[in-house]
Amino acid sequence: MYERLLMDFVCVCHNCRKTIEREFLYCPWCGKENAEVADNVVLDNVFSQLEEKQANDRNSRIKRIESKIIEIEKGLDELELGVRN
Q1: Over the stretch 28-51, which tens digit does the pLDDT of each residue have?
Q2: CA geometry: angle 7, 17, 45, nearest 5 deg
């Protein structure tokens, strides 16, 4: 159990193969960038961009739907006026 808990906080440097803390940006032994942290930064950026794009797409769809609703309401108003006359 202790080993599993420890593995959540440490990883192995891909360059020198020594154990380092998972959150380190660089290996304190050889100075190589921690690939796990670099990958996480890249993934965070990708997901942030994806979330922003999804939000923009969602807002765009909402605006298109609102425009269509306005058009339908105008059409209904015209029909109602035609029926009254």
Answers
A1: 999 998 877 767 777 788 888 999
A2: 65
The one-letter amino acid at 45? N
Query: Whole-model pTM above 0.85?
Result: no
Looking at residue 1, its pLDDT comes to: 54
Instruction: Supply the DSSP string of the chain, one letter for each residue.
Output: -HHHHHHTTEEE-TTT--EEETT-SB-TTT--B-HHHHHHHHHHHHHHHHHHHHHHHHHHHHHHHHHHHHHHHHHHHHHHHHHH-
d(CA 67, CA 63): 6
